[in-house]
Amino acid sequence: MLYWKDMMHFVVHGNPAPNYRVEKTEAEWRELLTWDQFRITRKHATETPGTGELCHAYAEGKYQCVCCGVLLFDDSGKFKSNSGWPSFTQSVTANAIKYVKDNSLGMLRVEILCNTCDAHLGHVFPDGPEPSGLRYCVNSAALQMIKESEHE
Q1: Domain 4-151 is in which class?
Q2: Is the dihedral of CA 61, 117, 45, 125 positive or negative?
């Protein structure tokens, strides 16, 4: 289980290596993604709060990066945060997410990216539920949900 101190360690000392990398040109990403997906994942934009289709989805399943398909989160870590974005307490593996210092908007935050393809996902905050205390605040457009019944 990861904690806030782990996020700070990754930001300062570097992230764990991903299992593999996916790299494409901007033109290739534009071909693969919808405009909203491209704008959010490749240009670091943010959805309007409460508008993402996964904000209120709590079916059993797994959540993949919409860009590269790598598994990022599962339903066991999803919780209702009332933040306006899907929220999770943990990623599925310690090396699924890349953590980056973000000083934009006049505050210090930790941006989260897919560690495999560098897609912007959202941010992580130290105000989530126990035991981790983390809240991964993720844009719906950055995720693709695979329902548990589709895995079988």
Answers
A1: mainly beta
A2: positive
